[in-house]
Specification:
- The structure is a single chain.
- The chain has about 200 residues and is of the alpha/beta class.
- The protein has two domains: about 80 residues, Alpha-Beta Plaits; about 100 residues, Dna Topoisomerase Vi A Subunit, Chain: A, domain 2, CATH 3.40.1360.
- Helix content is about 25%, strand content about 25%.
- The strands form three sheets. It has a four-stranded parallel sheet with strand order 6-5-7-8. It has a two-stranded antiparallel sheet with strand order 1-4.
- Helix 6 links the parallel strand 7 and strand 8.
- Helix 5 runs parallel beside helix 6.
């Protein structure tokens, strides 16, 4: 059937993952650092992903595509809610994790504020999957995270860093600690910051 569906321009895609997070149907996945419409039958054509894309890489097009399969989408959502843990290592607290460990070799780091896992329901699938997760709360922990994070980044082959924080001001301390650690490590490691609202939505 011919219908309205999204189109992702691979050349414009910067690999931020915002569209995949904004797609409530799970039609978009990140593959090799690029957003890909992997399930055309999951795309409802409403375009929640369009305003989420900072690079303007997503547009509408009208073409032949499978019909939107709402039953399959709902079944996938239910399965996702019952999914398994994506925690790849232990311990995961910044205070407890060792500075040197085999799981840091070639790792993508997720440095997350404690509260994000409770505010954002799909944190395992959308953020923890494929990453080494470090968690902490700068308001509750009387410690400078930047010192330990600097040593982790400096002494290991870290590929990228994602900071997952809440919109509340106290989470700014976590973001600042990561940015300070990246600077002090002397390495050029890609870093993105994702902010979660207290209602559980991705703000940026």
């Amino acid at each position: 059937m011919k219908r309205k569906i999204i189109h992702i321009d691979e050349d414009k895609c910067i690999g931020c993952g915002a569209c995949a997070s904004a797609c409530h149907e799970g039609a978009i996945e990140m593959i090799d650092g690029k957003a890909v419409l992997t399930r055309e039958d999951y795309c409802d054509g409403l375009g929640d992903c369009l305003p989420a894309c900072p690079a303007g890489a997503i547009t509408f097009e009208e073409r032949e595509a499978p019909a939107y399969n709402e039953a399959a989408v709902q079944a996938a959502k239910q399965q996702k809610m019952q999914g398994t843990s994506q925690l790849a290592q232990w311990p995961c607290q910044i205070k407890l994790v060792p500075v040197n460990a085999p799981f840091f070799d070639g790792a993508k780091l997720l440095i997350a504020a404690d509260c994000t896992a409770y505010a954002y329901a799909s944190v395992h699938e959308d953020f923890m999957k494929g990453r080494i997760t470090l968690i902490g709360c700068p308001k509750l922990d009387a410690v400078d995270y930047s010192e330990k994070l600097t040593e982790i980044i400096k002494n290991n082959d870290i590929q990228e860093v994602t900071v997952l924080r809440m919109e509340v001001p106290c989470c700014g301390g976590l973001e600042m600690a990561v940015k300070k650690a990246l600077k002090n490590s002397g390495k050029s490691v890609p870093c993105r910051v994702v902010t979660i609202s207290i209602e559980g939505d991705i703000l940026e």
